[in-house]
Amino acid sequence: MLSRLFAPKVKVSAHCDLPCGVYDPAQARIEAESVKAVQEKMAANDDAQFQTRAIAIKEQRAELAKHHVSVLWSDYFKPPHFEKYPELHQLVNDTLKALSAAKGSADPATGQKALDYIAQIDKIFWETKKA
């Protein structure tokens, strides 16, 4: 009896976590730029406290970049995009792997590699917006 009384009356669902339709790879790029900048600063400063803070910030920003790339992949890009750009699945995977590598590295080259992949996603994204 009580379970029926408190049971939800209406089920709701959404097709994505951002139904407003506002997507932009710039969010991922900005976070990845932060990762690379922190990596560069880490190379110039060997203070232990600075390094500890820098690692935490770099890892957080890399995770945020991965999140933004994942949202584009899962919520923005649709089957017609994947048909037109068959490399897109692999590109997103490579981008996420590059961000993971940058997360665990102090080498700015890993941050740049992630930025290069994000630039490719950005190019495809804006091509799809023109269509």
Automatic annotation (TrEMBL):
Keywords: Oxidoreductase. InterPro entries: NiSOD_sf (IPR036502), Superoxide_dismutase_Ni-type (IPR014123). Its EC number is 1.15.1.1. GO terms for molecular function: superoxide dismutase activity. Coiled coil: none annotated. SUPFAM superfamilies: Nickel-containing superoxide dismutase, NiSOD. It holds the Pfam family Sod_Ni. This is Superoxide dismutase, Ni. It comes from Streptomyces anatolicus. The lineage of its organism: Bacteria, Bacillati, Actinomycetota, Actinomycetes, Kitasatosporales. The gene is sodN.
